Structure formats: structure tokens, C-alpha cells
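Protocol step 6 of 9: fold each sequence in the batch and record its C-alpha cells directly after the sequence line. For illustration, a two-sequence batch is reproduced in full.

Sequence one:
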Amino acid sequence: MTKTDKRRLKTRDKIETAMVTLCQSKVNFATVTAPKIAAAAGISRQTFYRYYLIPKQVITNLIDRHLNEFLKTFRLQNLTARKMVLQLMTIWRDRTTVLELVEWSDSRYEFIRALAQFNQQIATQNQVNLINEQTVCNVYAAATYMLLRDYVLKKPVDPGTGHRFTTAFNQ
């Protein structure tokens, strides 16, 4: 990796950390601007604009980067819908910050769109032929998002035991 690459990664990390800080500070996303993110990241406004056009793009790039990383995990497996959802739950449980940013920024549509494209790539990789593939992938992405939101972020409590369902998807 060159010196330039390391600087770019460091700047990207500063911007992403600033977004997380703003989210965790409960700043209304509608009030988040490039100058506000730049100030929180300790960079100039111009530097922010070299990387992103708008604040929401920080989050969509994070989503895309994580899904691209996940493709490596899903390569050449005999996947069923159940196995895929279980794997996604396990992976996203360790990356709740990205899901929190999605909720905070109201980027659900962008997340579902990216997840639908991910689903199509998985189907292609695994040579799965679906009738009306795009519709199936879109519906599956929306359902997966709802599961992720409810069982990874909210971690509901089992009324019978009082324990959180944090390991329900490891079975």
C-alpha cells in the first residue's frame, strides 16, 4: 500500500468515526452537513467533498464496502435461504454500528437496494436460477433487513425467560 493509500484510509476512517459520533450523540441526521462532519472529523470541508458528495453517501459507501467483504464469505457454498439469513445475521451482529447508521440516517431504501444486488450476486455465484430474480431478490432483501433491524439492533427479550435473543441465530 502506498503512502497516499494510507492517508486516504485514515481520512475515510476519520469521516466514518465522525458520523458514528454524531449518530451516538443523537444529532438529528437532517441537520448533519458536510461542514459539521468535517469539523467532527478534524478535516476541512473540501477534504470531505473529495471523498463524498453528501453525508448520506458516507453510509451508503459503508454498506457497499461491508457487503463486498461478505461476498468472500458467501463464495461457492451450497446456500439455502435459511443458511444465507443465518450467516447474514451472524455477520451483521458484529457490525451493529453500520445498521445503527442506516436507521439514524433513514437509509433503509439504500440498504435494501444494496442487499438486493448482493442477493443477485450470490444467486449468480451459486448458479441459482430464480423465476423473476429481481423481484425475489428485492423481497428477500427487504425481509432480511427487517430481521436484521429487529433481531440484531433491537435484540428483543424472550418474555418467558427475560433473556435477550442474542444467540437465536447460532442454532
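Sequence two, same batch, same settings:
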Amino acid sequence: MASLVESAFGVKCLFSEGKRTKEIIFVGTKSKTKISVYTWTVLARILKTKMAEYKFSITHLKCSPGKKVALAEEYCEGWVRGVRQNIVPDTVSQKESELTKKLVKMKFNPKEADLRGSGAFGAEANDAYSQGVLAGKNTRLHQGMQADKRGALSETRYLGRA
């Protein structure tokens, strides 16, 4: 979902894990970072609901609770992919891109994250992913209308669950 928001709004998304909290930090122009946080919040809420609905819809499957969670995660990955197919990527000027990279490098010193898969495989996982893509295509994501006067760079933090 982070790459979806990055592409849609032309921001850089960073994940920070402290001793007690996890944060998602959006770096870019002020208006874009604010709308990115709002979009993340809304999409995370929708995704949580979709995951619960999907888990409920597969109660007829005779499989372990862990496999149901893995299938639901596949569905969610497909859903994000479907939403991503609907967006028009935001164009970012070369200057804005360079400034964002410099700010990220100076202030945050990012490292590559380790990604993991859902753990599901086979025909059931493919079906779950495909159903997620179809459901995601029905979700519309629009860019905000607010623009910055001077294009000042900013960071905005999302303090919910990452």
C-alpha cells in the first residue's frame, strides 16, 4: 500500500519503528503529505474491513485458521493491486524529487525493509488474489485539489498501526 500512496501523490513513504510505536512518515510537499496520511488512513480502514469480510466468506473452507489468514492476506494484496490499477500516478518535478531525496537522506537515513509473503500458495491463493484484484478495481482513489504556494517540503507522520 505504501508504493500505491507514493505513486498516487508523489511522496516518499518511510517506516519507523521505535521502542513503543510504529510510524509511517510521508515526505514531500506539505499538501501532498497531508492528503497521503488521510488516504492511508482511509485505505487501511477499508482494507481491514475487506480482510474481515473475506475471512468470513471463506468459513466454509475446511482449513486451519492460519491458512485462512494467509488466504485473506493474499486477497488484501490483490485488493491493493486492483486499487493501484485505477490510479493516475502523480508527476513530480525533478527539483522536487531531488529535494525530497536529500531531505530523506539527511534526516532519516533509510534502510531497505525485509518483505514477507502471505505464506499461501496454490489454486486457493490464486483465487483469493484474483478476487482481491477484482474488488480493488471497484475502489476509486482521487488526488487532492490543494496546492502549495511555494512547494515547501514537509513530513507528516501517521501514528496508527503500520
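Proceed to step 7 once all outputs are recorded. Observation for sequence two: The first helix runs from residue 2 to 9.
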